[in-house]
Write a structure and sequence with these properties.
The chain is mostly helical. It has helices at 2-19, 31-41, 58-67, 74-99, 102-113, 116-121, 128-148, 151-167, 174-183, 189-217, 228-232, 238-243, 261-267, 269-273, 277-294, 296-311, 318-322, 326-333, 335-350, 356-375, 380-383, 387-408. Helices cover 70% and strands 0% of the residues. It is globular, with a radius of gyration of 23 Å.
């Protein structure tokens, strides 16, 4: 465990020291604005006295929990996220140990935490740091619930899945997938249905307070009102923008539409108060549904593109790559693709060696991640929270490779008899 902690912490501390001037200045997502507003005024939104639901709340709450008692600084954010990365590596270690042995656990944790992309990414202000930890925890709990056939563990699995949804709204189907996995070995049928229900009910109970808050304060029962992001990933302009290395933020706006909450907040507090987030959410949702209905061929082309971008070993979005210059940029252009290609190969081999129940869980979770990318959009940072599943599979391949090497070594020469 000390080896795992060191492997997770030291590279990130080095990255933190190199990137300290950039962490809170560049590539900062809107959760940081929500967190600072919440700490300063008690309002969850872009501006004081203008509540919003224009983002998933969990990462903003995490940042606010740092800013309120301490301060907003690169040291505070960086060290807190290094601790989250260490926690993720330790959970992966526990998964590997649960499946096979301490050796498998250590190998899985090292492959997960030494991934070049996440070493750099984890120390910056990004929601995926929480996504990765929650994904690993929910996987461990699902395995425990499946093996022990225990209802309390099924409820815990659903509760953490609910937190994952509050961190990433696209995971709204995750509790249903986990419910099937957790319950499929339970007998009799009543116990099977009870375990599946507990997973879904616990996830619903975890997200319900936030949905109720939005219904009361914003005017609609939702986790986030940012369906404009879904529209940016689903319109006739998207494919060409992504094909030339852009991101969905580069998609041209619709003509004549009112400013969305983030833009309105940048104009004035009056403009922000005039925004009806629920109406805008419904408008962009209708635009997406119209696009799917009217242009199914274009949507199919986008889905294939998104899946390719999700699983690409190289960064396919120029904005991701431009943020990394010098040594970090060189590593992302050379070491990262090589690392991922080897990871894919080892994971494929490991899928024939790992326990069947984990292979099934990994396949379902990775399949869900791919499906969600095809609905929304795909990029490396959406995949890396789930790469630990590949790392666990790769650990079985590495362990087998080591055994084969040892078996093929010539026996050590015996010393001459005296």
């Amino acid at each position: 465990m000390l080896l795992v902690v060191a492997a997770a912490a030291f590279p990130r501390l080095a990255a933190l020291a190199l990137e300290r001037d950039e962490i809170l200045e560049k590539y900062v997502e809107k959760s940081d604005t929500f967190a600072t507003t919440l700490v300063a005024s008690g309002t969850f939104g872009f501006l004081p006295e203008v509540p919003s639901a224009y983002t998933q709340p969990l990462y903003a709450w995490f940042l606010a929990a740092l800013y309120w008692p301490i301060e907003r600084s690169w040291v505070v954010v960086g060290l807190a996220q290094v601790l989250l990365a260490v926690a993720t590596a330790l959970v992966v270690f526990l998964i590997g140990r649960r499946l096979a042995s301490t050796r498998i656990g250590v190998l899985a944790a090292l492959v997960t935490t030494l991934h070049p992309y996440v070493v750099w990414h984890d120390v910056h202000v990004n929601r995926e740091i929480l996504d990765g930890l929650l994904a690993a925890v929910v996987c461990l709990l699902a395995l425990l619930a499946h093996d022990r056939r225990a209802w309390p563990l099924a409820a815990a699995t659903g509760g953490v899945a609910g937190l994952a949804i509050l961190s990433n709204t696209r995971l709204v189907l995750l509790p249903l997938v986990l419910a099937i996995f957790v319950a499929w070995r339970m007998r009799p049928a009543g116990r099977t249905m009870g375990a599946a229900f507990l997973v879904v009910a616990a996830a619903a109970a975890t997200t319900a307070p936030w949905i109720v808050r939005n219904d009361v304060v914003i005017g609609c029962p939702t986790i986030t009102t940012d369906t404009r992001a879904l529209w940016k990933a689903n319109n006739p302009e998207t494919y060409d923008v992504l094909a030339r290395g852009g991101w969905i933020d580069d998609v041209p706006d619709l003509p004549g539409v009112p400013p969305w909450p983030e833009r309105a907040a940048a104009i004035s507090i009056e403009a922000a108060k005039a925004v009806d987030e629920c109406e805008q959410a419904a408008f962009y949702r209708d635009e997406v549904l119209d696009f799917w209905r009217d242009e199914p061929g274009e949507k199919a082309r986008l889905a294939v593109q998104a899946a390719g971008m999700l699983w690409s070993p190289v960064l396919s979005v120029e904005a991701d790559e431009s943020g990394q210059q010098g040594l970090a940029g060189l590593a992302q252009r050379t070491v990262e693709p090589a690392y991922v290609v080897v990871l894919y190969a080892l994971a494929l081999w490991g899928a024939f060696l790992a326990p069947r129940r984990f292979v099934a869980l990994a396949a379902v979770l990775l399949g869900l991640s791919t499906l969600l990318a095809m609905v929304f959009a795909g990029t490396v940072r959406y995949r890396v929270p789930w790469d630990f599943l590949l790392a666990v599979l790769a650990a079985f391949a590495l362990e087998r490779a080591w055994r084969l090497v040892r078996e093929r070594r010539p026996p050590a020469a015996t010393s001459a008899s005296r």
